Amino acid sequence: MKVIAAMSGGVDSAVAAARAVEAGHEVIGVHLALSNNPQKYRSGARGCCTIEDSHDARRAADVIGIPFYIWDMAEEFHDGVVENFIEEYSNGRTPNPCLRCNEKIKFAAVLDRASALGYDAVATGHYAQLNESAIGRTMHRAVDPLKDQSYVLAVLNSKQIAGAMFPLGDTHKEDVRIEAKARGLYVANKPDSHDICFIPSGNNAGWLRDRLGSEVGPIVDEAGNKVGEHQGAYTYTIGQRRGLGLSVPTEGGTPRYVLKIEPKSNTVVVGSKEALAISTITGEDPIWCGHAPVKNTEHRGFAQIRAHGAALPCMYIATDSSITAKLDEPLLGLATGQGLVIYDGDRVVGSATVSATE
Question: What is the C-alpha to C-alpha distance for residues 304 and 307, in angstroms, rounded to an integer?
């Protein structure tokens, strides 16, 4: 097959590209330029997609012996990921930009270009597995539970899964680094990137204030009593306890948590930890990763709402426009805008964006 290896400049994508070559595919390496002005270099493990990363990707492609190109996708990234991030926060939701990037950029946009150029698949360094079975091609958790990325890949539809390759899904991360060193790849010991790639400082609140302003508003308790002020409701998230800056303490110093964010009134509501408990999660705009469940019928499965969170036993019902998961045990705190991913064992059934909780 003709394969495009998406090379971020990290160790995972470099080894994935090398494995695609060894498997006999015709491979080219492509680095995605996601910023119009990528002047900030990586600092430790913060950020990604920098000038340094593009240089590292090119060196890796040279060692592997494949052609290398840089694709300018800054406009697509800004429109599909950055603007979505800002809009979601301004509406009182807490988005996951990695989900949107995988959905809109790393697979949708890249696969479109790859297909137009006559390529069959896109290989990445993500940790997940693809299996062929009686119900078609399905996506499953990686062998390494600490690196499993099936949660952030659950936004891929059947067509995108058909054009994806994940050469590292059957390997533990420590073995990938050993392999990279044996292959003479410069990035063998390069730290993994963390935080949001377009906010390398890690100061999400400050970044948002620069773009949305600092409109002072009230922090109120569940009875509506003012207990403090904030500098922008969008800088808070459901379940947050630290950094609230409350001026009215509770009796006995009982901690308060963010229960609700009301963007129209610019109000943050706080209360007890017990008030965070939810048992039902509803997600909108479902995406099915291959075989879709029978609609309007209860199914047994697992719900996951964080990239490395626990898989929670549940009953779920799917419709054309939503997924509703009823948890066996209550969950403390979940912000709308996050991703709800449903699993059948280790198979990814599909995903949706959390729109409501009860």
Answer: 8
Candidate list 48, 98, 197, 289, residue with the active-site label: 197
| Amino acid occupying residue 7 | M
Name 38's Cβ contacts closer than 8 Å, sequence gap at least 6. Answer: 49, 50, 51, 54
> Is 197 known to be catalytic?
yes
Longest dimension (CA), the chain: 68
Is 98 a catalytic site residue? no
pLDDT tens, per residue, the chain with 358 residues: 999 999 999 999 999 999 999 999 999 999 998 876 655 434 444 445 678 889 999 999 999 999 999 999 889 999 999 999 999 998 889 999 989 998 888 888 888 899 899 999 999 999 999 999 888 899 999 999 999 999 999 999 999 999 999 999 999 999 999 999 999 999 999 988 766 888 877 788 888 888 888 889 999 999 999 999 998 888 888 999 988 889 888 877 889 999 999 988 999 999 999 999 999 999 999 999 988 999 999 999 999 999 988 999 999 999 999 999 999 999 998 999 999 999 999 999 999 999 999 9
How far apart, in whole angstroms, are the C-alpha atoms of residue 342 and residue 347? 9
- Its sign, for the CA torsion 267, 271, 273, 274, is negative
Contact (Cβ atoms closer than 8 angstroms) between residue 128 and residue 149: yes
| Contacts of range 255-262, beta carbons closer than 8 Å, 24 or more positions apart | 256/221, 256/227, 257/333, 259/222, 261/92, 261/233, 261/234, 261/236, 261/237, 262/92, 262/233
Q: What is the pTM of this model?
A: 0.92
Measure the N-to-C terminal CA separation of the chain; round to a whole number of Å. Answer: 48
The number of C-alpha atoms within 13 Å of 27 and in the hemisphere containing its C-beta is: 26
* Active-site entry in 48, 98, 101, 314: 101
Contact 209, 232 (CB under 8 A): yes
Instruction: Give residues with Cβ within 8 angstroms of 30, minimum separation 6.
Output: 4, 5, 6, 7, 68, 69, 70, 71, 110
Give the integer Cα–Cα distance in Å for 67 and 7: 12
